[in-house]
Amino acid sequence: MDAILLQILNGLDKGSAYALIALGLTLIFGTLGVVNFAHGALFMIGAFCAVTFSKMLSFSHVVIDETQKDFLGNPLKVDVPYLYDWFGQATGDAIIDWAVPLSIIFTIPVMIAIGFIMERGLIKHFYKRPHADQILVTFGLAIVLQEVIKYFYGANPIPTPAPAAFAGSFDFGALLGFDPNTIIYPYWRLVYFAFAAVIIGAVFAFLQFTTFGMVVRAGMADRETVGLLGINIDKRFTIMFGIAAAVAGLAGVMYAPINSPNYHMGMDFLVLSFVVVVVGGMGSLPGAVLAGFLLGVLESFASMAVVLEFIPGINQIIIYLVAIIILLTRPRGLMGRAGVMED
Amino acid sequence: MFGLNKKDFGLMVIVAILALAAPFILNPFPEGSAMAQFNAGYPDLMQRLVIFGIFAIGFNILFGLTGYLSFGHAAFLGVGSYAAIWMMKLLTLNVIPAIIVSVIIAGLFSLLVGWISLRRSGIYFSILTLAFAQMSYALAYSVLTPITGGETGLQPKYTDPRILDGALEEGQTPRANLFGLDMNQGFELSLGGWVFTFNAGYYLAAVVMLIAFYLSIRIFRSPFGMMLRAVKSNQQRLNYTGLNSKPYTLAAFVISGMYAGLAGGLLVAMDTQVGAERMFWTASGEVVLMTILGGAGTLIGPVLGAGFIKYMENIVSKINKSVLEQWFAFMPDGIEDLLITLVYPFVGKGWHLTLGLLFMLVVIFLPGGLVEGGQRIGRVFRRRDANADSVESDAAEQRKPAAE
Amino acid sequence: MSFNNPTRRGLLKTGAAASAALTLPTYLRADGHSGFTNAPQGSTVTLGFNVPQSGPYADEGADELRAYELAVEHLNGGGDGGLMNTFSSKALKGNGILGKKVEYVTGDTQTKSDAARASAKSMIEKDGAVMITGGSSSGVAVAVQALCQEAGVIFMAGLTHSNDTTGKDKRANGFRHFFNSYMSGAALAPVLANAYGTDRKAYHLTADYNWGYTTEEAVRSSTEAMGWETVNAVKTPLTQTDFSAYIAPVLQSGADTLVLNHYGGNMVNSLTNAVQFGLRDKQVNGKDFQIVVPLYSRLMAKGAGANVKGIFGSTNWHWSLTDEGSKAFVKSFGEKYGFPPSQAAHTCYVQALLYADAVERAGSFNPCAVVEALEGFEFDGMGNGKTLYRAEDHQCFKDVLVVKGKENPTSEFDLLEIVEITPVEQVTYAPDHPQFAGGSLGTCNPGA
To answer: Which residues lie below 8 Å from residue C261, measured CB to CB, with a gap of 6+?
Structure first.
């Protein structure tokens, strides 16, 4: 029982990452009709925004410490962040410690700007082109973006820890009356889950309850008619692309402490998030979110030792197996509309 | 001739000449010159060029004609490779049984995958094929290690029980052969500063590629090919006329799966080793890129695309800093350093960056792929190469209405 | 007329063939000239450095390449000579190898066996490399080793830790200086028993591929011999990035030690996740919960940041060693590049030197002569103490380092501290040890 509860918790957390990426992917597909293979790269850039921001915070000058030696036996050069000079060591450390949450402020404008540039500079010209061309050009872009990141940051993962306040884990088991330590969950992952829920809620509320959202939804349903009504739908779509990029970026920023960011993390997520989107049904926002959580939970169950004993290797294939079963029983995924990307 | 019309025959002849003269064409620079870095006329790369050409030709029969975008074709290549290596381990080092079995096994596997995946269309089909391929990869890398060798892959060993060949001498290296002719045998021809390598394995692969290419022309021009194009342009309308399109698409799927298996078998025949990475989704993505880059739906496009990508991978990735220093050595120091700094991010370990940029450039400016680029150049020169040009423009035309 | 392996090209760069412009077609027989593949002609010899330049191990590959460039510089008489000064064999004179200037070509393995073989083949077929070296994974090492056996060139493995490389997949033309899973287990177990007691319940997470299997087996058997109990061993997919689902149930199982048989990105992520779960703050069975990482790489440990503090693991070599060889290497590497070398850089540098030395001592580039010179070769002064290249399996036997994540690092390179230098006797095993069974070296192949 406790094992199952634990894996549900786990799956929800994992699912929230899938859902966030799938949401952004579906936003772009649903509004613009573009299959964006560079979406994983946006997620990755988001994570590197956190890296960059914490690097900026710990921007240092070199002080030579005669008491210590470096590996060649020369006096050790110690990097002292400017923040220490300005605020003293304790405050400086506290600020650096909170780099990841703080970098959200930095990430949102950066990602929206990247989104605008991408849409205006490249994607715009591909609205009328076949999906295959869209896939190829965005795939090319994804490679370029990740190679640029690799050029500046190297190929190794870069540790980007969460604030110390979130270290350790919360004991759910004790709360529910189980033995201590049976159901524990890291604080930061709980934060991630809550954060994802807020973002998903905000996007839905934005589309559902604002005039802007109404127009965008109308545009998703019938772009030409909305255009005929004299509404500049293109501009709104550009803004939607910016928002989708920001959603991907935020998913990346908050993910950085969970797994140290590296330049190919976007590609790792890309295939998975596509499976999620398609299982949810192309173009359906609720479908994407639902599929994200569903696959997350199932993946967690498949990785239980008991399950692996019966079906070795099931953890390797569970997502794809579930995708096949769902697509065979529900032709357009969980909540897809007929006629969307079926030809 | 051979059931081809004049235009197609012309194209076939051009491809045949290109394939057979590849050792000359791919080695345009004299040995030892600074440009020799760009020579591609060594056996391994030539073999890979034609083998991935076969793979892409097969993929194009499915994608170019029916419009079904499979994202899992590498699985068939991998399955074919495993079948071939097991033939070499168990039966004989002769490549013929290995290749035949690889085609059959890949055909059966694609029949299974196709039969299930073709129940859906569009992106749902793509994801189904992707799912099958990813499952194959994941299992081959891990749980199936006893059969696939997992991470370390499979290589023939002299200790393998080869029923037809009899045991090899202690410690002897098993080599793939064609009735005694070693696949890595060949000879070198040196003319002045140039060296041309002729390799038995390459010519076997090239001949197989020509047969594969010929078959693909026949399929493109057959009533069957017509039916596949009908599927691409409007499947619904086709169904309304009372025709069941499924057997046709399934046949196309299996044929292209068999092409992939053939490519897999040949890969093993040329280089006796299989690893599971061959089936990873990036490998499936690569053949999609090859086909679209070259020109989907055209006859020669996929071959060009395959050549382009493999050339990049093998040649550009080997240019390192010291090679650059040699190239620019004649310049004044400051300019030399500047040039090296400018070029270095794009070569060697940065070859992926160049590849990504070129993808984008080709897709943005040449929607019809490299073939369209060739046509544009052709138009500029007002050369009237009636044969190849018009065949390809035919194919490019066919691509357009169906593209939406 | 004879058909033959068409692999030599270097001889054409110079000498008769080039001057004989427009001669009639010449059928070249490599063995007609020298009897082995890619026999160096003229005044140079070409080595092939096949390292990952793209993919997750690109930084490790870059460090390997730096080491090779340094080795070439030293072999050609440049720089301060590095390890050549401390190496027990004095055959190398800094005038290249057998008087031939060392040149090199580089390639990208992409950490994929297909790509690695393609790259190695182009070095052999196109560039005339007489030796291939490098790599950062066992899959690649085994694949390239088999290729080199077929082609008749020497393969000096880079970073490869799986037992299989010199176990079931060993080849006569292949040599490994790096240590292996068995040695990690044998070196770690006593240290772990010492630090954590002999009454531990271990939970293994194992990367689901060959290297993971051999490492798990090695660590399990040697810790169980110390009295540990293995509660569970769960396999995790190579492509896994988030290990929470595997780590969450660890505490429930009653285990008090977690062994992460992961490398590279897997290791960084699983260790980060485990620390996130607060495992190390927990008490189980009245003991502090502990985590062990059998194979450490400093480059990768950097990715896990502060999470490595206090965690035991093993490594082939570390720059903080204080023997003459290590000091000399750190000095010449550090002065050239500005930071200390990694264990991958060390093993690659040493492999390059060992090859060159073997050629000098054999007096020939012929792979069979080189094999003979390396088999049973004992040397010292290369940073790991007295070392033997065992003839039976072409594995180096030398001291193994047990290390621990440093609590107070002074720099970004100062992540590990050496806990114990396990003497070679303790990690030596019989050539027919069950963990290495099923392979055969075969005989050396000179190609041609």
So the answer is: C204, C205, C206, C207, C212, C215, C216, C219, C294
Contact by Cβ (8 Å): C330, C340: yes
User: How many Å apart are CA B247 and CA B239, to the nearest integer?
Assistant: 12
Q: How many other CB atoms are there within 10 angstroms of residue A327's CB atom? A: 26
Amino acid at C275: V
| The two structure tokens encoding residue C149 | 């056996």
Answer yes or no: do A342 and B122 touch at CB < 8 A: yes
Can you list the positions of beta strands (E) in A95-166? Answer: none
Q: Model confidence over A1-58: pLDDT tens digits?
A: 778 888 888 888 889 988 998 998 888 887 788 888 899 999 999 999 999 999 888 8
Contact B187 C112 (CB under 8 A): no
Which residues, 6 or more positions from B359, have their beta carbon under 8 angstroms from its beta carbon?
A136, A137, A139, A140, A143, B289, B293
Helix (H, G, I), strand (E, B) or coil at A40: helix
Cβ-based neighbours of C34, under 8 Å, separated by 6 or more: C366, C448
The rounded percent of chain C whose pLDDT value lies above 70 is: 92
Residue C51 tokens, joined: 């390292």
Tell me how close the Cα of A43 comes to any Cα of chain C, in angstroms. Answer: 14
Q: What is the DSSP letter of A80?
A: E
- A190 by DSSP, 3-state: which? helix
Q: For residue B187, how many other CB atoms are within 10 A of its CB?
A: 20
Give CA–CA dist A328/B355, Å, rounded: 36
Which amino acid belongs to residue B344? Answer: Y
Residue B276 gets which letter from DSSP?
Answer: G
Residues 162-181 of chain B with CB under 8 A from chain C are 170-173, 175, 181
**CB < 8 Å to A312, chain C:** 235
Q: Is B192 helix (H, G, I), strand (E, B) or coil?
A: coil
Nearest to B289 among A35, A136, A141 (CB): A136
B129 vs B74: CA distance, rounded Å: 10
Q: Which residues from C are below 8 Å from B150, CB to CB?
A: 209-210
Give residues with Cβ within 8 angstroms of B361, minimum separation 6.
none
Q: Shortest Cα distance from A108 to chain B (angstroms)?
A: 26
User: Quick check: B385 and A169 in contact, CB under 8 A?
Assistant: no
Contacts of B357 (CB under 8 A, 6+ apart): A140, A144, B346
The predicted-structure confidence for B153-211, as pLDDT tens digits, reads as follows 888 888 888 888 777 777 777 888 888 888 888 888 888 778 888 888 999 999 999 99
Give the distance from residue B371's alpha carbon to the nearest chain C alpha carbon, in angstroms. Answer: 27
Contact status of B273 with chain C (Cβ, < 8 Å): yes
Cβ separation of B359 and A148 shorter than 8 Å? no
Cα separation, B156 vs B173, whole angstroms: 8
Tell me the pTM. 0.90
Q: Which residues touch A74 (CB under 8 Å, ≥6 apart)? A: none
Would you give the DSSP letter of residue B274? B
Q: How many Cα atoms are found within 13 Å in the side-chain-facing hemisphere of A21?
A: 36
Measured distance CA(C133)–CA(C412) in Å, rounded: 28
pLDDT digits (tens, 9 = 90+) for B60-109: 999 999 989 899 999 999 999 999 999 999 998 899 999 999 999 999 99
What single letter denotes the amino acid at residue C228? W
Amino acid at A281: G
Q: How far apart are CA C132 and CA C46, in angstroms?
A: 10
Instruction: Give the SS3 label for residue B400.
Output: helix
**In this structure, what token pair is assigned to residue A74?**
């020369």
A121 in contact with chain B, both atoms CB, cutoff 8 A: no
CB pairs under 8 A between A and B: 127
Residue entry with tokens 């990452």: A17
CB contact at 8 A, C397 and C431? no
Q: Which residues of B touch A323 (CB under 8 A)?
A: 127-128, 131
